[in-house]
Amino acid sequence: MKIAVIDIETTMKGPLEMRASPYVHENRIVAIGYKLLNNWDDTGAMTQWVYIHKNGEVTGYPSADLITVVNDLLTADLWVGHNLGGFDLPWLRIWMDGLSFGSLQKKLGIDLKIWDTQIVEYLLSGQLHRMPSLNEVSAKYGGTLKETAIADAWNEGIDTEDIKVEDLLQYLIEDVNNTTKVFQAQIREVAKNNMFRFIETQMMGRLATAEMEWNGLAFDHAKATEHSNTLKATQETLLHDLMATANGYIQTHTKSNVILFNPDSPKQIKTILFGGTFKEKVDMPVLDDTGIPIQYKTGKRRGMIKTKQTDVEYTVPAWTHGMLNVYSDDTSEDNLEKITTDPGVKPDCKVFITKLLAYRGVVKQLNTYYEGYGKFAIKKNHYDSIRFIHSSYNHCVTRTGRLSSSKPNLQNINGKENFDDA
Fold first, then answer.
1. Which of 75, 240, 410, 415 could pair with 405 as two cysteines, CB 3.0-4.6 Å apart?
2. Are 390 and 379 in contact (CB under 8 A)?
3. Shortest CA distance to 203 belongs to which of 413, 405, 396, 409?
4. Does residue 136 contact residue 396 with C-beta atoms inside 8 Å?
């Protein structure tokens, strides 16, 4: 069996949530490193690499010929990598398609298998070690710990193609060597625990979700924008009504005209519904030792009284006073909905809670779906009007082993939201 252990370094362009994403058109592969093993315990293979410069020039060892690299990889029976399914696979698919090697997807799972060391480690740990990093796994199996210089450069906003070539290549080669060591150690552990068939099914599952990620979820940006604008108008109306009603209640009981209710504050909602204190900053006169206000003696404010901002507390009674049943004082949707059905709650309080729940629903639709999902929607190419969301399907995040979704979380969509048509 011929095995290719692979690692890829790419540019880091795009918004923070999608940094280094293969679906951001401005990104590209900067360097590819790989080892070709003749069998799983081969320890004599050298690490090969190619580096693609900004100007398109290619350097490499032992060859700078990109077609040779592609042929090397495509003649392998097994690809090995850390987070291979989530990162390296889509990058290699784009890259090989660009070089007119469009047969990769047909080979995957049939002539070409995968071994994702991140998922394997998660399974070997009994699903306790979630999203294990290559550094963590390398330390376990006797590999080296990488220097932080490259990661520090990325965190400082330095793109991969602007890092010194020799530094990046050292980082790349170390990743390939560590991944090889991890893979060979995992083979022994999997054999010891008789897990090969189980691992094989999980890798086939990863190929399926990699295909799902690649295809993406179609997103009608124009329709989403239309709905978003309608929701923003509704949000503005609800916000105005909530603030007017709440401020009126607070001011009636505190005689203060300053407090501004914030419907996004669970603490303020809890205070107004179940009783408590509001704090506000008030300009209070600065007094001398005899209690007389101090005046400015010079300058433009000469003769004016000096003031300083002071926290003043106002106590308000529970708006829900009179309830016939006992509820908790949390502000969750379930608890508030129960309160609105209590015949002892005042009508104006019920109206307030109903509008508050409607406001929350609108905010969730805007932030989570129309605008939240929208920032992940990318055109397939610069000329296409259709956009797609390429969510990540995570195999090693949950304790139970179930699949999860992130960037964005597509499992957030539920039947209550009118989002399907977007």
1. 410
2. no
3. 396
4. no
**Residue for token pair 């990093």:** 133
Nearest Cα neighbor of 28 from 64, 67, 55, 60 is: 55
Token pair for residue 382? 């610069």
Q: 299: buried, middle or exposed (CB in 10 Å: 19+, 13-18, 0-12)?
A: exposed
The kind and range of the H/E element at 52 are strand 47-52
Taking only the tens place, the pLDDT of each residue in 26-78 is: 999 999 999 999 999 999 899 999 999 999 999 999 999 999 999 899 999 99
Q: Which of 142, 232, 141 is CA-nearest to residue 186?
A: 141
Q: Where are the beta strands (DSSP E) in 264-371?
A: 276-285, 307-316
Say how far apart CA 7 and CA 182 lie, in whole Å: 13
Q: How many Cβ atoms sit within 10 Å of the Cβ of residue 27?
A: 21
- What letters, b where the CB count within 10 A reaches 16 and e where it falls short, cover 39-64? ebeeeebebbbbbbeeeeeeebeeee
Maximum mean pLDDT: which of 229-243, 247-261, 265-279, 295-309: 229-243
Of 160, 94, 81, the residue nearest 390 (C-alpha): 94
Spatial separation of the C-alpha atoms in residues 256 and 266, rounded to whole Å: 21
